[in-house]
Write a structure and sequence with these properties.
10-stranded mixed β-sheet, alpha+beta, 15 strands, single chain, 6 helices
């Protein structure tokens, strides 16, 4: 059975959490604030005193059949004695019985330990406010959605991300066009000249992110980019206190295809940006070769908000560092039809007016 770590306030003994605003650990009971290293040293000193040994020989219930529990882990909360059952990709959570934040170190051992983590800068209230702002001013949003939907859960989640560094050596060939047009009293002329634009060179990429969690939708995760890596720090379990954290279930090897796709598109766009002075540019052929490719493992902060309305579930995400907020919304079809009819009427009136003036 894997152990867990809880951080205890040196002043009052309460369970402390990481405060995203202060970037330190804060006790919710006595408001004491501590540096992470101070609390870690304090916790280490306590753990070095040893633990009670109260072993029981219990032979109750049936045994698990082979494969039945392969994706589950069982942890014991040292605060209330309750047991937590979580799947193998969950790294940190709260005890469902006493609500104390816990860190499950069993999921972060060995080669699974992240290299870096970007701590949360924005709290749960900021996520709620962002949702309200996201809903405001939407003309086609059903009026009942804001009043009748309710937030099922707001989770601060550290999402596992693979970060790819590489040097791209590329050769690109573009088909370019220049158009020149003129008119006389009889005809309108268009002259098109075609060119082959060749580009070759190197471009360096750092920290290209690829979502390492099956649970987190890739498009949703990429929609709240970018994350600013300047706030990244070496991984410490203390930053997880009070938040969830997923262990990666998409390996670095499995992420290579998506990383290659992002790097290739960015390389093509960067090289295309150098082909200027033409009316149109299209990539004809090209190749990208990567050198010194390396991958790192990091945890990025994301607020996940789930709401339910009319029996449908709507998921929103907010960048826990920058506040960028995304999420799909339902459409009031009656209101949409009215707007479409209104726009059609306006366009029809404008066209009729123009035709009348041209007569």
């Amino acid at each position: 059975m894997a152990g867990l770590i809880e951080y205890e306030c040196p002043c009052c003994g309460g369970r402390i959490e990481f405060d995203s605003g202060l970037q330190k650990l804060k006790c919710p009971y006595c408001d004491s604030v501590f540096d992470i290293e101070t609390v870690q040293n304090y916790t280490a000193d306590i753990q070095n005193t040893g633990q009670d040994e109260m072993n029981w020989d219990t032979q109750a219930g049936g045994e698990w059949q082979e494969g039945e529990n392969s994706d589950m882990r069982v942890y014991t909360c040292q605060s209330c004695g309750g047991e937590i059952i979580a799947d193998s990709t969950t790294g940190a959570s709260k005890c469902p019985y006493c609500d104390n934040p816990v860190v499950m170190t069993g999921s972060f051992s060995g080669d699974l330990k992240p290299d870096y983590i970007i701590p949360f800068k924005l709290d749960k209230d900021a996520a709620k406010a962002a949702l309200s702002k996201h809903l405001s001013g939407k003309r086609l949003l059903p009026k009942q959605f804001s009043s009748e939907n309710h937030i099922n859960e707001i989770k601060g989640v550290y999402v596992p991300v693979w970060l790819f560094d590489a040097e791209a050596d590329a050769n690109m060939v573009y088909r370019a066009e220049k158009r020149n047009s003129w008119s006389d009293s009889n005809y309108h002329y268009v002259e098109t000249s075609y060119y082959s634009a060749v580009r070759a060179g190197k471009i360096a990429f750092e920290l290209v992110p690829v979502d390492g969690s099956e649970k987190m939708d890739d498009d949703l995760m990429e929609s709240i980019e970018p994350f600013d890596f300047k706030d990244a720090v070496d991984f410490r379990t203390a930053y997880l206190a009070g938040y969830l954290a997923d262990r990666y279930d998409v390996s670095a090897e499995q992420s290579i295809e998506r990383a290659n796709s992002r790097i290739k598109k960015s390389t093509e766009a960067a090289f295309a940006g150098t082909v200027t002075g033409y009316s149109a540019v299209k990539l004809q052929s090209g190749s990208v070769r990567l050198n010194n490719g390396k991958a790192k493992y990091a945890l990025y902060p994301v607020w996940i908000l789930n709401t339910t309305w009319n029996g449908e579930k709507y998921t929103f995400a907010m960048n826990g560092q920058t506040g960028k907020f995304v999420g799909d919304l339902p459409v009031d079809m009656k209101a949409a039809s009215m707007w479409f009819a209104l726009i059609t009427a306006i366009v029809t009136a404008v066209l009729y007016g123009l035709s009348f003036l041209l007569q």
